From TrEMBL:
<protein>
    <submittedName>
        <fullName>FMN-binding glutamate synthase family protein</fullName>
    </submittedName>
</protein>
<dbReference type="InterPro" id="IPR027283">
    <property type="entry name" value="YerD"/>
</dbReference>
<dbReference type="InterPro" id="IPR002932">
    <property type="entry name" value="Glu_synthdom"/>
</dbReference>
<feature type="domain" description="Glutamate synthase">
    <location>
        <begin position="161"/>
        <end position="478"/>
    </location>
</feature>
<feature type="transmembrane region" description="Helical">
    <location>
        <begin position="12"/>
        <end position="30"/>
    </location>
</feature>
<keyword id="KW-1133">Transmembrane helix</keyword>
<dbReference type="Pfam" id="PF01645">
    <property type="entry name" value="Glu_synthase"/>
</dbReference>
<dbReference type="InterPro" id="IPR024188">
    <property type="entry name" value="GltB"/>
</dbReference>
<dbReference type="GO" id="GO:0015930">
    <property type="term" value="F:glutamate synthase activity"/>
</dbReference>
<comment type="similarity">
    <text>Belongs to the glutamate synthase family.</text>
</comment>
<keyword id="KW-0812">Transmembrane</keyword>
<dbReference type="GO" id="GO:0006537">
    <property type="term" value="P:glutamate biosynthetic process"/>
</dbReference>
<feature type="transmembrane region" description="Helical">
    <location>
        <begin position="36"/>
        <end position="55"/>
    </location>
</feature>
<dbReference type="InterPro" id="IPR013785">
    <property type="entry name" value="Aldolase_TIM"/>
</dbReference>
<keyword id="KW-0472">Membrane</keyword>
Length: 539
């Protein structure tokens, strides 16, 4: 029985001490008189508590750290009072950033997410943002907002939720975490991105809609030497559960970096799923080998669409050199075909492990990247045929509304759904010692995550977030979040000055590139971009 085997893990020392103490207390009570019964009761209480912690299904951290983890919950109970006393006096005026993890937990557990006494944010501090409401709010629409993804070359378009699970691979996450995420997607009617670790049996067994992400390692569709294999791709891509295919050029937390899963962590199971040799490092190169120019990339996407049977095919990337993206746009125009979708990943997005310099300073933040990509497609007359998704620290309905005003058709979230399955941000993702069984390949730690309980929480979080989004949409006088405009959002840029998003993020007119962009820098970038090469222009 896994629960009994887990008792002997070193992290269960408090339970072991309690059980040993109970045996010692019984011996004393039997041999030294009844005066030691209080000790039996003491150790008996903690022994019973520890055993209960191991078998209960509500809290993964208690299953991994019986008895000890109660200290964490005690500190959580004390936190509001400590915070109020030390950080929220009426005179200091210090801005307070609300704990979004706590909000996700409340929604995932279907707890009350309302609170008293106004905003905790400092409304007169630089950076505060808000959405303008209407004096004529609309009746609340059905919160199951959908977007159709698939251009004119797509035979099997997909009707996607506007809020989906962002890319997280099996191998980075445990089998139970993948089961819970995909089961929640199935229950809630939204999509689950596999991450570049490929499609695993744990994605398939729950039956939720899948976005298959393919990175530079071509895991699940590669030859033994790491090249793309069309036959393996077609065999997987045509599975009904896979609804879209996403080619990852880069991710926000470490764009242009690539990655290595050391040989010691390449288990037989991971080797089989990814199609890599056992006993060797599993390498994700920084660049793809199947294409090297914008024209080759667009042609590769068209080939994947054909091999998949006509499913939507797109690209995920963190925006880097803007001229390189414009070169890609020119390739679309030249070949007369385009991706069905683009996913813009902000550099603020997360990862299990990346160099600090990459996480802090490499790549374009989501808002700037999303605005540029949206406007580039508008300026080239392609926006109507290409859908745009986005990801990067999106956890709340306001985050979704703001992103859609900036040009997104839908949003993906990784950390929000990780919180929903129990992540407590212990920052141990890269150590294989995740305390909640989310980011680990240790089967004893992974057993702490109880799949049916977390499936419900994933679906609850999605449903509650979209319900709140529907409330924002109605309050703004709209019927769908796709109708949000930049004019409806404001940001305080100083204590005495407020700016509209329409001024902070200037827009291009449809086809403006062909008439000459008004911005001379943008016009020069467009003129210097070449469909035949990445990296010709720098801007």
């Amino acid at each position: 029985m896994p629960g009994l085997v887990a008792i002997f893990a070193p992290r269960h020392w408090a339970l072991l001490v309690s059980v040993c103490g109970l045996g010692w207390a019984f011996w004393l009570a039997l041999n030294a008189g009844g005066g030691w019964l209080w000790l039996v009761a003491f150790f008996g209480f903690f022994s019973a508590l520890g055993v209960y912690d191991l078998v209960q299904t509500r809290h993964a951290v208690l299953r991994n750290y019986p008895i000890l983890a109660h200290l964490r919950f005690l500190l959580e109970e004390m936190r509001p009072e400590i915070r109020q006393y030390f950080f929220e006096s009426e005179t200091d005026g210090a801005p307070f950033s609300r704990d979004r993890r706590a909000l996700v937990y409340q929604r995932a557990k279907m707890q009350l997410d309302k609170r008293p006494f106004g905003t905790h944010l400092a409304t007169y501090s630089d950076g505060y943002e808000w959405l303008l409401h209407s004096f004529a709010p609309r009746p609340q629409a059905d919160p199951d907002f959908r977007v159709k993804i698939g251009g004119p070359d797509c035979a099997k378009p997909y009707s996607a939720s506007v809020f989906n699970i962002s890319a997280m691979s099996f191998g980075a996450l445990s089998a139970n975490a993948i089961r819970a995420l995909n089961g929640g997607a199935k229950a809630g009617g939204f999509a689950h991105d596999t991450g570049e670790g490929s499609l695993s049996p744990y994605h398939e067994e729950q039956g939720g809609d899948i976005i298959w992400e393919i990175g530079s390692g071509y895991f699940g569709c590669r030859t033994l030497d790491g090249a793309f294999c069309a036959e393996k791709f077609a065999a997987t891509a045509q599975k009904p559960q896979i609804r879209m295919i996403e080619i990852k050029l880069s991710q926000g937390a470490k764009p242009g970096h690539g990655g290595v899963l050391p040989a010691a962590k390449v288990t037989p199971e991971i080797a089989g799923i990814r199609g890599v040799p056992l006993g060797k490092d599993c390498v994700s190169p920084a660049a793809h080998s199947a294409f090297s120019t914008p024209l080759e990339l667009i042609a590769f996407l068209a080939r994947l669409r054909e091999l998949s049977g006509g499913k939507p095919v797109g690209i995920k990337f963190c925006l880097g050199q803007p001229g390189e993206f414009l070169a890609l746009v020119k390739a679309m125009l030249e070949l007369g075909t385009a991706p069905d979708f683009l996913v813009v990943d902000g550099k603020e997005g997360g990862t299990g492990a990346a160099p600090e310099e990459f996480m802090d300073h490499m790549g374009t933040p989501l808002r700037e990247g999303l605005s540029f990509v949206h406007n580039a497609l508008v300026g080239a007359g392609l926006r109507d045929r290409i859908r745009i998704g986005c990801s990067g620290k999106i956890t709340t309905a306001f985050d979704i509304a703001r992103a859609m005003a900036l040009g997104a058709d839908w949003c993906n979230s990784a950390r929000g759904f990780m919180f929903a399955v129990g992540c407590i941000q212990s920052l141990a993702c890269h150590t294989d010692s995740c305390p909640t069984g989310v980011a680990t390949q240790d089967p004893l730690r992974g057993r702490a995550l109880v799949v049916p309980d977390k499936i419900a929480r994933v679906a609850n979080y999605h449903r509650a977030t979209l319900h709140c989004l529907a409330e924002l949409v109605a309050a703004a006088g709209l019927d769908h979040p796709g109708a949000f405009t930049l004019d409806q959002f404001r940001r305080r840029v100083s204590e005495t000055r407020v700016a509209s998003f329409s001024n902070l993020y200037p827009s291009l007119e449809p086809g403006e590139f062909f008439r000459g962009a008004r911005d001379p820098d943008l016009r020069a970038l467009w003129e210097g971009a070449s469909s035949k090469s990445f990296g010709v222009s720098r801007g």
